[in-house]
């Protein structure tokens, strides 16, 4: 199991992911979306599940859907915390395997590891962790 460096899945950027403005001072980290500026954080956004309008900074993006705290809690119970995909690494170098793992990454998940399938010499297993679980664990 190769653990990937933390920097790989988090872009270190001082820009708001919504309006692309440079962030000076206060910013908010919205799980599943990224860092937003104060203005975008306070902007009302509709919850994709129940339709109530809440401030963006209180939302959690799950597989690209903005969800309020209540709906997020409900969805969270339903979806798997971890998932894995098998990758045919035949003829691919380590970089090619990593690229394939990134391409196969399910929306809303983060690549957390790659390991060789114990029954094969060319097949790899890419492991993904749900984005919100991952961000909570890694702070
Ligand atoms: Zn912004
Ligand atoms: Zn909701």
Primary descriptors:
139 residues, alpha+beta, Cysteine Rich Protein, four-stranded antiparallel β-sheet, two-stranded antiparallel sheet, 4 helices, 24% helix, elongated, disordered N terminus, binds zinc ion
What this model shows, in words?
By secondary structure, the protein is α+β, with helices and mostly antiparallel strands. The strands form 4 sheets. A 4-stranded antiparallel beta sheet has the order 1-9-10-8. It has helices at residues 38-42, 69-78, 94-103, 131-138, and strands at residues 2-3, 27-30, 34-37, 44-46, 53-55, 60-62, 65-67, 82-88, 109-116, 123-130. The structure holds zinc ion (2 copies). One zinc ion binds at residues 47, 49-50, 52, 67-68, 70-71.
Strand and helix map with partners:
Elements lengths: L1 E2 L23 E4 L3 E4 H5 L1 E3 L6 E3 L4 E3 L2 E3 L1 H10 L3 E7 L5 H10 L5 E8 L6 E8 H8 L1
Antiparallel strand pairs: 1-9, 2-3, 4-5, 6-7, 8-10, 9-10
What is the structure about, briefly put?
This protein is an alpha+beta fold. Helices cover 24% and strands 32% of the residues.
Apparent shape: elongated
The overall strand count is 10
Seen as an oligomer or otherwise, the chain set is single chain
Helix content: 10-25%
Radius of gyration: 17 Å
Major sheet strand order: 1-9-10-8
Distinct small-molecule ligands in the complex: zinc ion
């Amino acid at each position: 199991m190769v653990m990937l460096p933390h920097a790989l899945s988090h872009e270190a950027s001082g820009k708001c992911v919504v309006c692309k403005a440079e962030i000076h001072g206060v910013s908010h980290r919205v799980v599943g979306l990224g860092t937003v500026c104060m203005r975008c954080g306070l902007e009302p956004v509709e919850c994709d599940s129940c339709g109530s309008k809440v401030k963006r900074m209180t939302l959690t993006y799950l597989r690209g859907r903005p969800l309020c705290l209540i709906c997020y809690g409900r969805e969270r119970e339903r979806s798997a915390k971890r998932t894995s995909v098998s990758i045919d690494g035949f003829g691919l170098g380590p970089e090619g395997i990593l690229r394939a793992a990134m391409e196969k990454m399910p929306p809303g998940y983060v690549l957390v590891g790659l390991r060789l399938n114990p029954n094969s010499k060319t097949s790899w297993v890419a492991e993904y962790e749900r984005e919100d679980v991952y961000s909570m664990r890694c702070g």
